Every structure is written in structure tokens, then in C-alpha cells.
């Protein structure tokens, strides 16, 4: 086959018969590659953006989780201390109740004594009336 | 004594603004309305309760951590101190500081190694005592010069207190309490008091009781001999502070978030649970109405004593607020509210009158009319005791004792040298319509007696001296002033009765009971009630002991131990001492006795109304009525009372009947023989003999010139020496005496050994016939004489 002398010199014509240094095929492929590369870079960029957003979100979530965790621990501790507080309160109330109980016992004894006095007095009155 | 406080509660007020940043370590009152507090934030604050202002007095150096603060005593020996007020402040660096009211630290003295735990002035302000962590106790002069190191021990001393006369101190030694007299040779008393380290102690100057609190979470009350009177149940937290009220009736106890108000016998009136942290120190204001506590959370807590109640007959009075009282008439449920300008300090309700003292005035209400009280100003504000009698009342303050009439007139101011009125209480002072009795503090055997209307000492001015220390006195309330009797309980718990006014008679103090813990006279008749050992006893007619002491046991009414559970053990554990079981009689009004049990409950007991009626009849000489009453009641005790009353009033006919009723035949016979006596004088003499007053009987007879009868009395009593002495002195009947003596010796087949009789028997011939004739002659003479005197008197009466 006869070689294209131009081709040998590294010159080619494309379809529009413009003079080219590269083979039209290669040129085309190069352009294609370029296009593809551009696309790739774009995609990568997009990906980075998405991932960044994701990371941010996760970070936020982590933070929130942390505070929630702290809150939970706090609440748990509070719960424990409330139980203790209740215990203390209960003890105080118990002491007060014991006090009142003692007072009640005193009143009960006083009441009994007074009832006895009443009985004695009515007995005395009855006797007095009978004897008269 | 006659009215009683039934219930108490505290109202707590918390001051939150401007308080200390750190725990408050101690508080001290200067006036009833001004308090100083010191704290670990190096500040001393002054709290004014009238204006509710809090001012910073001083900022102490940063390395000074105060521990204890105590003000110099205000009254010294009844006299008010004119000196600038100073306080002692002890600190953790081993120093104590004397500071003035303005906050200036006048002097700092290096006192101990380690912290100085307590600093206390004695009652007369002549000495200061400090107790240190190094186990030493040191006494300092008023100006801060070291006098001596009183004690030294291996463990820290946490608290110290002065004894009532400032001659002894009480301090802690681990779980033990130690009482050490200042005199080096005197005996030290030491005992194990708590199961944990003792943190605080206090010793009341009024009732001589000791209060201690410790890490075993208990507080205990002791007497000054170290006997346990009360032990509380275990608290939840250690007891961090204790304090006696100035009048010795109440005590305050502080613990973690706890403030408790108790009676002096230990049982609790009220419990408060303020949010304060541990109460490290409590202090009573001088008038005993307010209480301040130093709290662990930097607060200072104030409490007031309210809800006090007084009951008398149908009236019930409650102190509802500090300045308000509510009077309730139980009969018709009528309620009156009494308002006062100042805080109520003391009140007393009895004998139809209510006496209330505030810080400046005294209000006297009649129970008939609650609207218009009689008001007069008081010289000194803090009245510590009110006693009432039917006609007047007695006020006691730091400076003296005053008797006022219910019209508000100052009647008298009894006083004796060395009197300390600030420590008088209802047990050591007594008032009746005509007499004031006060037991001496320095010599507790001595009772000073005063005419209530003049304030002068009774009789020759000599006080009544008992053979033993007296712990309680009480004057009877009724009858004539000349018959006034005083009942007293001595240290051995024996009850004695004696006359207040002695008209030349011999000193006679008669024992009428043993193991008596408490007693009270009736308000309307001279009936005494008391608790003997475990039995409730009523002396219906205590005077019987002076008339016929054999009769006294028959005039008693004793109730067996169980009534109303008077002696059942209180709910608190470990009441070992007998005192803690014994109740206290609060009053005896009409027929009702009110008793406070050891656990604080009130019990009532009724006494038969007949004895009081009998007293009334005897008092107005209605003997026929008295006899009718006894016949109606058919009670041996009552008959015995009547017998004694009749004899006391020389009412022989009634006495004869009464003695017959109780089966005392011998006495009936003797009374009959008295009735047959020819003359009034010898009848009187024999009645005196009946009561055992031989001396007086003799002098009565001799005064009437009845020498023979006097001699015969002694012969009958086998008082040979005195009979002979009289016979020789009056040169008559020597032979009679000798004859009787001879007969007596013969009857018992004995030999004469008495030298005087041997001497006289030599010169005298004994002739029974002659003697009998002489006796007959004497009797005839007496009869004749009494006949003429009676004729004379009847003639005189006819004219």
C-alpha cells in the first residue's frame, strides 16, 4: 500500500480538509478523553461536596448524641439522687411522724385520765343522789 | 407553779440575705433582739431582730477561723454591768481573742496547741475558761492573763461548762464527762456518759442539771451527781449542739437539719426539720423566748417559743403568736384575743388572774374581764418567774424579787444579803397571802421567810434552817397567817412540815412523808398532795402531825401505783433512774390534781371533795355540820381528819365523837378525863399534853399557879427528876413525889439509885394518908378557884 507522504511527515487532513498534526482519530479520541476528564473532575467535585455535607451532618449528629448522652447520664444521676432525697425527706417526715405519734400517745393518756375522772365524778354524783 | 404550760412548738424563721458564705460556727446574744454570729468566712455579723437588719461587724484576718463565741455575762451578782460589753472568740490557730461590741479585737492570746474548742466566762465574769484540742483546760483572768491549767488529758476537750456557782467545771473527755471543782483538793467526778464522742455540754445554773450530746446521736440529761435522768432515743445524725433555756425549764438540741425543743425532764415538745445543715451551736436569748442556731450551710436560724398553753379551771390560754394570746372559756366557748405591744416573756394564770410580762410591761387581767388589763411598767425586762397567791403575785427578775398586788401596786421587795434572784424557780421560792419563802442558794439548808406585805424578815429575822439540803418548798395557801405552814422536801426526799411563824414555841419540824418526789398544796384548803415513791398520796390534814401524830397516817389517802398509769415506763428507752419514772405534780386546784408524767403526758386525778368541805366547816367552827358530813360520808379518813381538827381547835365534844368513830378508845377516855377536869387551865394543859407538848403544858399549869397539877403531870410521865425539881423549887409536895417514886420502885422491885432522891428521902417522911388528903385539898382548891372565876366571868359578861 502506498504510504501517504504527508502522513509520513506527520501531517494529516481531517474531514474538513484542515491540516492537522495529529491523526484525526487520535485527535478525536484526545478530545473525547478531555471531555471525559472534565466530566470526571466535575463528578469528583460533586462527590466531595456530598461527602463533606455528610461528614458535617454526622459530626452534628455525634454532637447531638453526645449531649443527649450527657443529658441521659444527668437524668439518671438525678433520678438516683431524687431517690436519695426522697429517702432523706422520708426520714425527716418519719421523724416528724414519730414526734406526732408521741404527742398523740400523750393526748391518748391524757384523754384516758380525763375519762376516768369523768367516770369517777359521775359515780360520785350518783352515790350522792342515792344517799340523799 | 399553779398554772402550767401544756404544749410548746417552735416557729423557725430563716434569714437568707447577706448570710455567711461558709459554715457558721457560733452565735451569741447581746440583748433579746441582737445576735452576733461568727463564721469560717472570717466575718462577724450582727443581726438586729427588731429591724431585720444584718450588718457586717468585722472582717477577721484570713488565717483566723473562729470556733466559739461567748459574750461576757451581763448581770453580775444581780447588778447590771456598766462595762463595755466584750466577747471571747476562740479560733483554730490556738488563740482566743477578746473583742468589743464594735468588732475591734482588743487582745489575742496564745492559749493552746491546736484549735481552742470552747471559751466560756463564768457567771460572775471573773474568770474565763478555755478548752483545747491539746487536751488542756486553762483558766484566765478577765483581762486574759493565764491563771492556771486546770486539767490535762490525752484526748481533745470538745466542750466545757461552768457549774451553777462557778466553783466547778464540766468538760468532755472522749465518751466521758468530768466534773472538776476549782479547789485542787476536791474530788473529781468522772463517768462514761455516751457511746460516742461527746460534742457539746451545758449545765443549767437554775436547776443544776447537765445536758450532753454526742456522736452516738443521743442527748442526755444528768443531775450534778452524774445520775442519768433522761436519755433520748437515737437520732439519725450526731447531736451537734445543746443549750439550756435561761429559766431551766426548756432545753434545745441541734443536729443535722434538726432543731428540737424539749422539757427539762427530756421529753420533746417540738421538732423542726429546717434545711440548715448541721446546727453547730444554739443560743437562747436572755429572756428565754428566742433561740438562734448556727447552721452548717451558712445560715443563722431563729426560732421563737410559741403555742404555750396555760389552763386554770375553765380557762384555756394559748400563746398563738409572739404578741398574741387567745383565751378560751371552755364553759361557753367564748374566745378572747389579747394583743400585746411587745413579745410575751412569761405568763401565769391562777387565782382568777392572768399575769403576763412582756419585755417592758406587766399586764394583769382578771378572768372576769379580758378587755381592760391593768398595765404597769417593769424596771427590768426579763422576768424569770411569776408566782401567784390569792391576794398578790410575785415577780422575779435578775435584780430582785417583787410582790405586787393585783391592782398593780408594788407591795414589797423582800431581799436578803447574797440573794441571787436570777436562779430562783418555782421549787425554791413560794408565795402565800402573807408570806414569801425563798431557799438560799449558797446554803441550801436555809429558807428565808418574809412578811409578804412589808418585805421584812419574819419573827426575829432568823431564817429557817433545816438539817439537810432542801430541794423544794411550798407554803400552804389558806387559813390564818399565824397558822401558816411550810412543807419542804429535802435531799433525802423526806417531806417535812413546819410552822412559819413560831410564837415562842420550840422549833418543831415534823416529818410527814418519805420518798416524796413532788408535792403541791391545794389552792382552796390546806390539803397537800404528793407522790410518795410510786404512790399518789393526799395529806387531807397535814396539821394533824402537830395535834396527834399517831393520827397522821389515818388522815392520808393513798392511791395504789397503777392509777392512770402514773408509773408505767415512758416510751423512751433506758430510763434507769427512779427520777425519770416519777411524775411531777403541776397543780392542785379544787378537787383536781394535774400531774405531768416523765414522758410528758398529762394525767389528772380527782380527790374527794369532802376533806375540803370539812376544812371549811372546821375553819368556821361549824362542828355540827362537820359531824353530819362525816356521818354522811362514812369514811374513816374523814373521821380521823375531823378528830385532829377538833383537837386542834380544842373542840372536845366533836373530838370525842370523831375518835370514837375511828375506834381510838384510849383517846376518847383521855378526852373524857380532860372534860372532867375542874379548871380551864388544867384542861388546856392536858390538851397540850395530848399533842405531846409537855413543856407548854407545864408552863401553862405553873402560870395558873397549879403547882401540884404540874408535878402530877411529871409523875404520870415518870419524869421523876423534873417532878422533884418542881416540888423542891415550890417547896410543896416533895413527899408526894417521893411517895410515888417509892411506890414505882417497889412495883418494879428496884433500888433507888438517883442521888437527889436519896438525898431528899432522908429528911422526909412518907405518909400516904397525909398525901391523899393534901391532893384532895389541892383539887378542891382548884375547883373552888375555877368556880369563882367562872362566876366572876359570868358576872362580868352579864355586866
From TrEMBL, chain A:
This is Intraflagellar transport protein 20 homolog. It is found in: Cell projection, Cilium. Its main location: other. It comes from the Eukaryota. The keyword Coiled coil applies. Pfam families: IFT20. GO terms for cellular component: centrosome; ciliary basal body; ciliary base; cytoplasm; intraciliary transport particle; neuron projection; non-motile cilium. Keywords: Cell projection, Coiled coil. InterPro entries: FT20. GO terms for biological process: cilium assembly; protein localization to cilium. It comes from Anguilla anguilla (European freshwater eel). Residues 79-117 form a coiled coil.
TrEMBL record, chain B:
GO terms for biological process: cilium assembly. It is found in: Cytoplasm, Cytoskeleton, Cilium axoneme; Cytoplasm, Cytoskeleton, Cilium basal body. Pfam families: Beta-prop_IFT80_2nd, TPR_IFT80_172, WD40. Component of the IFT complex B, at least composed of IFT20, IFT22, IFT25, IFT27, IFT46, IFT52, TRAF3IP1/IFT54, IFT57, IFT74, IFT80, IFT81, and IFT88. Interacts with IFT88. Interacts with IFT57 and IFT70B. GO terms for cellular component: axoneme; centrosome; intraciliary transport particle B. InterPro entries: Beta-prop_IFT80_2nd, TPR_IFT80_172_dom, WD40/YVTN_repeat-like_dom_sf, WD40_repeat_dom_sf, WD40_rpt. Its main location: cytoplasm. Keywords: Cell projection, Cilium, Cytoplasm, Cytoskeleton, Repeat, WD repeat. Residues 307-610 form the IFT80 second beta-propeller domain. This is Intraflagellar transport protein 80 homolog. Residues 638-784 form the IFT80/172/WDR35 TPR domain. Component of the intraflagellar transport (IFT) complex B, which is essential for the development and maintenance of motile and sensory cilia. WD repeats lie at residues 109-141, 191-223. Residues 560-574 have a biased composition (Pro residues). The keyword Cytoplasm applies. Residues 558-579 are annotated as: Disordered.
Amino acid at each position: 500500500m502506498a504510504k501517504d507522504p504527508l502522513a509520513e511527515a506527520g501531517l494529516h487532513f481531517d474531514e474538513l480538509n484542515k491540516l492537522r498534526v495529529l491523526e484525526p482519530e487520535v485527535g478525536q479520541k484526545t478530545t473525547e478523553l478531555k471531555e471525559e476528564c472534565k466530566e470526571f473532575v466535575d463528578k469528583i467535585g460533586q462527590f466531595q461536596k456530598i461527602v463533606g455535607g455528610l461528614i458535617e451532618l454526622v459530626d452534628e449528629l455525634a454532637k447531638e448524641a453526645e449531649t443527649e448522652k450527657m443529658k441521659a447520664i444527668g437524668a439518671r444521676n438525678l433520678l438516683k439522687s431524687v431517690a436519695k432525697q426522697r429517702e432523706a425527706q422520708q426520714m425527716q417526715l418519719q421523724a416528724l411522724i414519730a414526734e406526732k405519734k408521741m404527742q398523740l400517745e400523750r393526748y391518748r393518756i391524757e384523754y384516758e385520765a380525763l375519762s376516768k375522772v369523768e367516770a369517777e365524778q359521775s359515780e360520785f354524783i350518783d352515790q350522792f343522789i342515792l344517799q340523799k | 407553779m399553779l398554772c402550767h404550760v401544756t404544749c410548746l412548738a417552735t416557729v423557725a424563721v430563716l434569714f437568707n440575705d447577706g448570710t455567711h458564705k461558709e459554715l457558721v460556727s457560733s452565735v451569741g446574744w447581746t440583748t433579746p433582739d441582737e445576735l452576733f454570729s461568727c463564721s469560717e468566712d472570717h466575718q462577724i455579723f450582727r443581726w438586729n431582730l427588731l429591724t431585720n437588719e444584718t450588718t457586717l461587724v468585722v472582717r477577721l484576718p484570713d488565717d483566723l477561723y473562729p470556733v466559739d463565741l461567748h459574750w461576757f455575762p451581763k448581770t453580775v451578782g444581780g447588778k447590771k454591768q456598766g462595762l463595755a460589753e466584750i466577747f471571747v472568740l476562740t479560733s483554730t490557730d490556738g488563740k482566743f481573742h477578746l473583742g468589743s461590741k464594735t468588732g475591734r479585737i482588743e487582745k489575742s492570746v496564745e492559749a493552746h496547741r491546736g484549735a481552742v474548742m470552747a471559751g466560756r466566762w463564768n457567771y460572775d465574769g471573773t474568770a474565763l475558761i478555755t478548752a483545747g484540742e491539746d487536751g488542756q483546760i486553762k483558766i484566765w483572768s478577765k483581762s486574759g492573763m493565764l491563771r492556771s491549767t486546770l486539767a490535762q488529758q490525752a484526748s481533745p476537750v470538745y466542750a466545757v461548762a461552768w457549774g451553777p456557782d462557778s466553783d466547778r467545771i464540766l468538760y468532755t473527755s472522749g465518751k466521758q464527762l468530768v466534773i472538776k471543782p476549782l479547789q485542787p483538793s476536791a474530788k473529781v467526778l468522772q463517768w462514761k456518759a455516751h457511746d460516742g464522742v461527746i460534742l457539746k455540754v451545758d449545765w443549767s445554773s437554775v436547776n443544776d442539771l447537765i445536758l450532753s450530746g454526742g456522736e452516738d446521736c443521743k442527748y442526755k440529761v444528768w443531775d450534778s451527781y452524774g445520775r442519768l435522768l433522761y436519755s433520748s432515743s437515737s437520732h439519725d445524725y450526731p447531736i451537734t449542739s445543746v443549750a439550756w433555756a435561761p429559766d431551766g425549764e426548756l432545753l434545745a438540741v441541734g443536729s443535722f437539719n434538726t432543731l428540737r425543743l424539749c422539757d427539762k425532764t427530756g421529753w420533746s415538745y417540738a421538732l423542726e426539720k429546717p434545711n440548715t445543715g448541721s446546727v453547730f451551736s444554739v443560743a437562747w436569748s436572755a429572756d428565754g423566748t428566742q433561740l438562734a442556731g448556727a447552721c452548717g450551710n451558712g445560715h443563722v436560724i431563729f426560732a421563737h417559743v410559741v403555742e404555750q398553753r396555760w389552763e386554770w379551771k375553765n380557762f384555756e390560754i394559748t400563746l398563738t403568736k409572739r404578741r398574741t394570746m387567745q383565751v378560751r372559756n371552755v364553759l361557753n366557748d367564748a374566745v378572747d384575743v389579747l394583743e400585746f405591744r411587745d413579745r410575751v416573756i412569761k405568763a401565769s394564770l391562777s387565782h382568777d388572774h392572768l399575769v403576763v410580762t412582756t419585755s417592758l410591761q406587766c399586764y394583769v387581767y382578771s378572768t372576769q374581764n379580758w378587755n381592760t388589763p391593768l398595765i404597769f411598767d417593769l424596771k427590768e425586762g426579763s422576768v424569770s418567774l411569776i408566782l401567784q397567791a390569792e391576794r398578790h403575785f410575785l415577780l422575779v427578775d435578775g435584780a430582785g424579787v417583787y410582790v405586787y398586788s393585783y391592782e398593780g401596786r408594788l407591795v414589797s421587795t423582800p431581799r436578803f444579803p447574797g440573794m441571787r434572784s436570777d436562779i430562783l424557780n418555782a421549787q425554791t421560792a413560794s408565795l402565800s397571802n402573807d408570806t414569801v419563802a425563798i431557799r438560799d442558794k449558797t446554803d441550801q439548808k436555809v429558807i428565808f421567810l418574809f412578811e409578804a406585805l412589808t418585805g421584812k424578815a419574819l419573827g426575829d429575822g432568823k431564817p429557817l434552817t433545816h438539817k439537810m439540803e432542801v430541794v423544794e418548798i411550798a407554803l400552804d395557801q389558806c387559813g390564818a397567817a399565824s397558822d401558816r405552814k411550810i412543807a419542804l422536801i429535802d435531799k433525802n426526799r423526806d417531806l417535812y412540815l413546819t410552822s412559819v411563824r413560831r410564837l415562842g414555841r420550840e422549833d418543831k419540824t415534823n416529818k410527814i412523808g418519805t420518798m416524796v418526789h413532788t408535792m403541791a398544796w391545794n389552792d382552796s384548803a390546806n390539803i397537800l398532795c404528793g407522790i410518795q415513791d410510786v404512790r399518789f398520796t393526799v395529806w387531807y390534814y397535814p396539821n394533824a402531825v402537830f395535834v396527834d401524830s399517831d393520827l397522821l397516817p389515818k388522815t392520808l389517802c393513798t392511791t395504789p401505783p397503777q392509777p392512770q398509769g402514773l408509773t408505767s415506763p415512758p416510751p423512751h428507752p433506758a430510763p434507769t433512774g427512779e427520777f425519770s419514772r416519777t411524775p411531777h405534780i403541776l397543780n392542785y386546784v379544787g378537787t383536781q390534781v394535774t400531774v405531768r408524767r416523765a414522758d410528758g403526758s398529762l394525767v389528772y386525778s380527782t380527790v374527794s371533795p369532802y376533806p375540803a368541805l370539812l376544812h371549811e366547816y372546821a375553819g368556821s367552827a361549824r362542828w355540827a355540820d362537820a359531824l353530819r358530813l362525816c356521818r354522811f360520808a362514812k369514811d374513816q379518813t374523814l373521821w380521823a381528819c375531823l378528830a385532829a381538827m377538833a383537837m386542834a381547835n380544842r373542840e372536845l365534844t366533836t373530838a370525842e365523837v370523831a375518835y370514837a368513830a375511828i375506834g381510838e378508845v384510849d383517846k376518847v377516855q383521855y378526852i373524857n378525863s380532860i372534860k372532867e377536869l375542874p379548871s380551864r387551865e388544867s384542861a388546856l394543859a392536858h390538851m397540850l399534853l395530848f399533842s405531846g407538848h409537855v413543856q407548854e403544858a407545864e408552863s401553862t399549869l405553873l402560870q395558873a399557879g397549879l403547882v401540884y397539877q404540874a408535878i402530877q403531870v411529871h409523875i404520870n410521865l415518870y419524869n421523876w427528876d423534873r417532878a422533884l425539881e418542881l416540888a423542891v423549887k415550890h417547896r410543896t409536895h416533895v413527899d408526894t413525889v417521893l411517895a410515888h417514886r417509892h411506890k414505882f420502885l417497889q412495883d418494879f422491885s428496884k433500888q433507888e439509885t438517883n442521888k437527889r432522891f436519896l438525898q431528899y428521902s432522908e429528911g422526909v417522911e412518907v405518909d400516904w394518908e397525909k398525901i391523899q388528903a393534901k391532893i384532895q385539898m389541892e383539887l378542891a382548891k382548884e375547883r373552888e378557884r375555877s368556880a369563882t372565876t367562872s362566876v366572876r366571868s359570868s358576872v362580868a359578861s352579864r355586866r
